[in-house]
Amino acid sequence: MKDVTKNAIFKRLNGDFEYYARYQRIKQISSRVRVSEYLITTACNIRCKGCWFFEYDFDKRTKDLSKKDEIKKFLISRGIEVSILV
Question: Is the pTM of this model over 0.85?
C-alpha cells in the first residue's frame, strides 16, 4: 500500500492505531474469502427476462435441497465454512 493511502486511512481513523491494526487484519483475511451463490430451490415460477437460471435450463438439471442437513452437507462438501441462507 502506498504511504499516501496508508496515511489517508490512518488519518480517517483519527490516528487510532488499534483500529487501524484491526482494519489491516480484516483486509488481509478478506482477501482469502471466497464468495459464491447457491440457489437451493427451483420453486421460483417467475421467468424474468434474462434470468440465467431458466435461460440455461438449470431448473431441469438441479434438485431442491429442502432439509437443513442436506443443505449443510452440500455446503461443507464444497468447502463453504460460512453461509447465509435467506
Answer: no
Q: Look at residue 3 in the predicted model and tell me its pLDDT.
A: 53
pLDDT of residue 1: 46
Domain boundaries, the chain: 1-33, 34-86
Distances (CA, A) of 84 to 52, 71, 80: 22, 11, 11
Question: Could you count the other beta carbons within 10 Å of the beta carbon of residue 6?
Answer: 12
Cα 50 to Cα 14, 43, 83, distances in angstroms: 46, 18, 26
The C-alpha atoms of residue 31 and residue 71 are separated, in whole angstroms, by 26
List CB contacts of 53: < 8 A, sequence separation 6 or more.
39, 44, 59
For the chain, give the mean pLDDT: 77
The rounded distance, in Å, linking the Cα atoms of 24 and 18 is 10
**Joined grid coordinates for residue 19:** 483500529
